[in-house]
Amino acid sequence: MDGAVNAAAWAFDALLVLTLLWLAWRVLMGPDLFKSIVFFIAFGLVMALAWVRLRAPDVALAEAAIGAGLTGALFLAALSRLAAGERIANAKRPVENSDTGKSTRPHRGVRMVFIAMSALFFGGLAAALLSLPAEAPGLTIQVAENLSTSGVSNPVTAVLLNFRGYDTLLEMGVLFLAVVAAWSLTPAPKEPVSPPGIVLASFVRVLSPMLLLAAGYLLWAGTHAPGGAFQAGSVLAAAAVLLLLSGKDMKANWPEWPLRVVLGLGLGVFIAIGLVMMLIGHRFLEYPLDYAGDLILLIEVAATLSIGVTLAALFLGGRPQRDERK
Amino acid sequence: MNAAMLYALTGAGLFALGLYALAVQAHLLRKIIAFNVMGSGAFLVLGALAHRAPDQVADPVPHAMVITGIVVAVSATAFALVLMLRVQSETGQPHLPEQPSD
Amino acid sequence: MMLSQMITIVLLLAGAAFFLAGTLGLLRFPDVYTRLHALTKADNVGLGLVAAGLAIQAETWAAMGKMALIWLLVLLASATGAHLVARGALRRGIPPWTAR
User: How many folded domains does chain A comprise?
Assistant: First the structure.
């Protein structure tokens, strides 16, 4: 019985990794960009399954929501803006040739060199990986020993917000910088959104409160089970993207400054708490034992709001413009 | 050879595939997608190495790093896409010019 | 083997059969509308059977409720998705397949 279960698990793993590699090939080399993006979303979902197999449910949630969902939505939005830009360029210069992937590939000899280079790279990586010991506890024991001092009981959340809080602080900085950079480069496109139709509109009406609820649940569950600020924030962002896609013009209804405050909230609260800890005699981002759980939850609430609004703002593709009709 | 190594090698394979596409594809959107596939490969290597811990628990530190990495990757992707659209609106084409224009 | 385990196995296998049928439809049917029809209907039933099979094994009522909720949400989402794809295809002027 045990042998049969093992063999089934092996067969499943083998099927999963082969699917991943085949999907990656279709994503990277398919002739049609739209199909490539659809395959990319499928790739992200299969990747989430691989994370479940690797006993990383926190990562699986993040991969499905961000890696597959939001990144895919970003790609599709960018593709339609590229097509719109191409139409404008073609109107100016009718000879302009649209790209189908094949025509712009380099010469065969050059490709051979790159194939050799990539194969060499894979060989080196594989040799390095195979030389590693088959079993290594890593930092599992240290994390388990100190989990009781972290204020939460989900080890991944403990690492993200306590043991390696610096990483997460800087990551909030990266998110913030990405929005600042994107908004500085270009205004958001003012495309007329096609009317959503009654089915999509009622679906979004039912779904958006549920997504809010799910975000709150993931945030709360993150302290003791898979979930946390990033997963919750990406669900919030998904709700915002759905609303944008179904024609809700949130840019026009959102006053300028609250949006900016929420964008910086996560980073600001994180830094403020770190500095307050220094003022009362701890080190930067070192939480006193009695309040660690509350402080982490406070940071996570702020981070969730910021991540949700930041990812939605990135989906806009530029700084929101005021509606001139009003 | 165990399950962890199978996934680690797959991660390395995805990274190499992405690297090849990054080099040979001229279209900037394809380059950005290739960069995302490379990222997925790197994350998979990290996750597979975390899976080597015994007793049905995985090392949470690489998991936290991967979650951080996924969020950083989507931020960088969004920024890269805005840059790509800017290149297109300046030059009329979604790829980099062959020769630096004057 | 307990009765509940046997019911679970039967339900999971039946669910898998529906998924298989839906996938076959996706691969073999002639146009986007018939493929959507096969995929959406068969996968919704398949997922319902899988969720029911797993719900029998759930330890708490809350876990059972979550599985039911997942199925209901997927029903809503896949119905909406199928509608949107079909509407998009119609607007692009893709004619529905008719038997010759």
Answer: 2
Task: With cut-offs at 50, 70 and 90, classify the pLDDT of residue A197.
Answer: confident
Chain A residues close to B98, C-beta within 8 Å: none
- The domain ranges of chain C are 3-91
Coil, strand, or helix at residue A48?
A: helix
Kindly state whether residue A135 falls inside one of the protein's structural domains.
no
User: Is A142 part of any domain?
Assistant: no
CA distance C51 to chain A (A): 17
Domain assignment of residue A70, given as a range: 1-102
Q: Say whether both A207 and A302 belong to one domain.
A: yes
Cβ neighbors of A231 (< 8 A, separation 6 or more) are: A58, A61, A62, A65, A218, A222
What are the distances in angstroms from CA B82 to CA A14, A183, B77, B88?
Answer: 38, 9, 9, 10
Cα of first residue to Cα of last residue in chain C, in angstroms, is 52
ipTM of the complex model = 0.93
For B52-83, what is each residue's pLDDT tens digit? 877 677 888 899 999 999 999 999 999 999 99
Residues 210-239 of A with CB under 8 A from C: 210
Tokens 């240290």 identify what position?
A142
Contacts of A75 in chain B (CB under 8 A): 29, 32-33, 81
A236 interfacial to chain B (CB closer than 8 Å): no
Q: What is the pLDDT of residues A26-53, one digit of tens each?
A: 999 988 999 999 999 999 999 999 999 9
The domain boundary, picked from A102, A128, A162, lies at A102
Residue A93 reports pLDDT greater than 60: no
How sure is the predictor about A251, in pLDDT bands with cuts at 50, 70 and 90?
A: low
Provide, rounded to the nearest whole percent, the portion of chain C with pLDDT above 90: 49
In a domain, A147, yes or no: no
Helices and strands counted in chain B (H then E): 3, 0
User: How close is the nearest chain C Cα to the Cα of A118, in Å?
Assistant: 33
d(CA A221, CA A141): 23
Could you tell me which chain A residue has the CA closest to the CA of C78? A203
Note the residue count of chain B.
Answer: 102
Tell me if A129 sits within 8 A of B51, measured CB to CB: no
- Answer whether residue A11 is part of any domain: yes
Contact between chain C and chain A (3 or more Cβ pairs less than 8 Å apart): yes
- CA dist., res. A93 & res. A96, Å (int): 6
Answer yes or no: are the C-beta atoms of A100 and A93 closer than 8 Å: no
Residues A320 and A230 reside in one and the same domain: yes
Residue A101 confidence class, pLDDT cut points 50, 70, 90? very low
